[in-house]
Amino acid sequence: MSELDFSDRYGQKTTHWKSIATILLIIGGAWLTWAGLHHSRPEISTTLISFTIPSERSASLRYAVERRNPSSAITCTLIARDFEKNVVGEIEEQIPAGASRIEKITLIPTRTVAVNATISRCRPTSQ
User: Fold this and answer.
1) Helix, strand, coil abundance in the chain, percent, nearest 5
2) pLDDT of 27-74, one tens digit each?
3) What fold is seen in the domain 44-124?
4) Are the beta carbons of 108 and 78 closer than 8 angstroms?
5) pLDDT digits over 78-114, tens only?
6) Are 95 and 65 in contact (CB under 8 A)?
7) pTM for this one?
8) How far is the CA of 74 from the CAs of 38, 46, 79, in angstroms?
């Protein structure tokens, strides 16, 4: 007497879910690795070191900029805010091509008393 085989009695569906899941895992893992490595080192990165408020009409900002391509000029937008978080001063500072890491101290003129200053953004300068 033969052993009862359910696949003979009910039929067996052939599924390839394991091979599809393996392919998706390989593709997803490769994309995740690429995205992590690509975005972990941006083209331009900034560091706010300190700020001071030397007068009622200005704010001083000390910051560092690091760029992967030292031969490209960049433009940084620096802002100062008041107690209610309104922008009271804004300048765009051009940083010429040169060293890959630059540390600067910049005075931002303000229209009223500022309580903080920060780097809004840095981007490559349009040629």
Assistant:
1) 20, 45, 35
2) 999 999 999 998 888 899 999 999 999 999 999 999 999 999 899 999
3) Immunoglobulin-like (2.60.40)
4) yes
5) 999 999 999 999 999 999 998 999 999 999 999 999 9
6) yes
7) 0.71
8) 20, 12, 16
